[in-house]
Amino acid sequence: MVLPALHLNKEQVADLFTDYTKVKNNPIISEEVKTARRVMRDKFTHADMGVSGANVAVAETGTVFTMTNEGNGRMVGTLPSIHLYVFGIEKFVKSLSDARYIFKALPRNGTAQRITSYISMYTGACEVTTDKETDEKRKKDFYCVILDDPGRREILAEPDFREIFHCIRCGACLDVCPAFALVGGHVYGSNVYTGGIGTMLTHFLVSEERAAKIQNICLQCGRCNEVCGGGLHISDMIMKLREKNMKEKPDALKKFALDAVSDRKLFHSMLRIASVAQGMFTKGEPMIRHLPMFLSGMTKGRSFPAIAQVPLRDFFHTIKQDVKNPKGTIAIFAGCLLDFVYTDLARAVVADMNSIGYKVEMPLGQACCGCPATNMGDTENAKKEAEINIKGMEAEKYDYIVSACPSCTHQLHLYPTFFEEETEMYKRAKELADKAYDFCKLFYELGGVTETGDGKPVKITYHDSCHLKRSLRVSKEQRELLKNTKGVEFVEMNDCDNCCGFGGSYSLLYPEISAPILEKKIQNIKESGANVVALDCPGCLMQIKGGLDARGIDDIKVKHTAEIIAEKRGLI
Questions:
Q1: What is the spatial distance between Cα 258 and Cα 380, in angstroms, rounded to a whole number?
Q2: What is the pTM of this model?
C-alpha cells in the first residue's frame, strides 16, 4: 500500500529515473535515493499549493492530523504558500484525547510500528518565513474541504453499514485477506476502494455496479474481522451488501439454483439422479478426477468425491446403536454433504456419541441448512430453509443437536434472526439454535476427552476451518481430543487457520483464486511432515482431499476429527 515501487529492482528503478530525468542513472541505491530526493524537493519548493488528506480531524479544536513515514506529507504542509486539506466527515473525532487511540492503532495495524515517523498536526493557518535574510514572515493560506456528500449521508442512514465510519484506513484487512494477497489491487481495477472494507466504500461513494462485482472476491473467511483496528464486522457487512444487491438487482441464474436447493424434495431427487449418472465419470472410483468439456475447469487441480449411492437418510435407521441407559438423545443435522456424500463420517459421529452414552437420531424432515443462500444474499430462500429445518428437526424433542459441519452449525445459530421476536417461529428457532453444537465442541463438553486409543503411532496436523474458528470460536477442543488419543503425535502446520480456498461455491466460481490458496495450504501440510490432516469441516475435507488426490499425493490422509476418534478408539 505505501510502497508503490516495491515490485521494482534497482536496475528497473534506474531505467525509470533515466527515462524521467533524461539523465543517465546508475543502478546504485544510494544514488537513486539522491535523485529521488533532488527531483521531489524541487517540486515541493516550487509548488504553489499543497493538498493533504487527514487521518484524523478534531471537532473541538479544528486540528487536522496527517500520519506519514516518508516525510513528503510534512513538506506538502510546510513549503507551499497555500495548504488545502480534503477529508470526509467520517474523519472527525470529538477531542484530542479521542484521537490518541487512532495514533496507536493505525501504525500498529498498517505498518507494524509503535508510532509513525511523522505525525503532522495543523490548527488553522501558520506563519512561514518568506525571506531568510530579513526574517520576513507571512501567514499561509489554509483551507479545509470537508466531504459531506450523499454517499456518506447514506452510510449514516443505514444501520447495517453505519460502522463503516469506524474504519481508520489502516489496511490491516488487506494484509490478511487471502484473495487480496493473490490478486492485489490491479484486479480490483481503477476507481474503486480495494479489499473488504473497500467494497462497502465503493458501493456508497463510487458505484454500486462496481461494488457488486468486487464483493464476489470475498471468501467470507472472516480474517478481516479479527484484525480490524476499528472493530468492524467487515464480512457481515459484505453479506448485507449481497442481500441488498439480491433484492434490488437479483441474479436470475443464482436465484434459479437457490430456488431448486430450497425445494427439499426436488433437490434430493436431483442428488439421487446425479448419484446414478456419475458412473461414467467415477468409473468405480471414490473420486471424480476429470469432467468433460465446459465442466473440465471444475476438476483442474482438485478431484471431487463421488455422491453416495445410498444417502444417509435412507439407511440411518439401520445403524446399530447399543447404548444402555442413555444419558440423553441427540439429533444429528447431517447437512447436504453428510447426507449425500460423506455418509461414513456420519456413522463415525454416531459411534462417537454412543461411546459417551448418548443415543443419536436423524429427523428426516431436515433439508439444506441455507448457508449457500445466505452467502449469496438470498434471504428469501435462507428463511424458507430455516422454516423447513425448524419444523423438520423438532428440536424440542432432543437434548442437543449435533452437526459435523461448522458452516451448517453457524447457519443454525442464525435462524432466530430470520423471524420477529416473540413469534412462535422465533421461539422455535431460538431453541434449535441454543441446542445446536459442532461435533468437536459437543463431544468435548460431554466428556469425550479420555486417554484412549489403539496406540498405533500416527503424526497428525490440524487445519482450522474458517467458520469453526472465527464464527463458532472453537479451536482448542479438537486439539485436546486429538492430543489425548493414544498413538497420536500432534504437530501444528504453518498458517493452520488460513483458508483452504473452498468457500462453498467460491471454489467453483473463482477457481483461479481458490486454486493458489489451496496450493499454499497443501505446501504447509507437506512441510508439517504429518501422515494425517485432521479437520472438522466437510467442505474443507472436499477441498484438501481433492487437492491431494489431484496431485497424486496418497501418503497423506485427510480425515474429520470424528473419524479419527472413532477409528483410534475402535468404535467403527
A1: 10
A2: 0.86
pLDDT digits (tens, 9 = 90+) for 88-138: 999 999 999 999 999 888 888 888 888 888 899 999 887 777 777 777 888
All structural domains of the chain with their residue ranges: 47-147, 150-248, 270-444, 449-569
Please provide the CATH number assigned to the domain covering 47-147. Answer: 3.40.50.10420
Q: Which of 158, 156, 225 is nearest to 197 (CA)?
A: 225
Residues 6+ away with beta carbon under 8 Å from 334: 312, 313, 346, 362, 366, 403
Give the separation between CA 192 and CA 170, rounded to whole angstroms. Answer: 17
Euclidean distance between CA atoms 372 and 235, whole angstroms = 15
Edge-first strand order for the sheet with 49-53 is 49-53, 82-88, 141-147
Which of these CATH numbers, 3.30.450.40, 3.30.390.30, 3.40.190.10, 3.40.50.10700, describes 449-569? 3.40.50.10700
CA distance 294 to 463: 32
Asked if residue 199 lies in contact with residue 215, where contact means CB atoms within 8 angstroms, the answer is yes
Alpha carbons within 13 angstroms on the beta-carbon side of residue 65 total 22
3-state DSSP assignment of residue 219: coil
Q: Give CA separation, 67 vs 56, 136, 141, 165, 367, in Å.
A: 9, 30, 21, 19, 53
Question: What is the C-alpha to C-alpha distance for residues 34 and 53, in angstroms, rounded to an integer?
Answer: 27
464 CA to centre of own chain: 13
Phi–psi pair at 250, nearest 5 degrees: -65, 145
CA distances from residue 177 to 2, 24, 163, 270 in whole angstroms, order as listed: 17, 40, 20, 35
pLDDT tens-digit profile of 4-36? Answer: 677 788 999 999 999 998 989 999 999 988 998
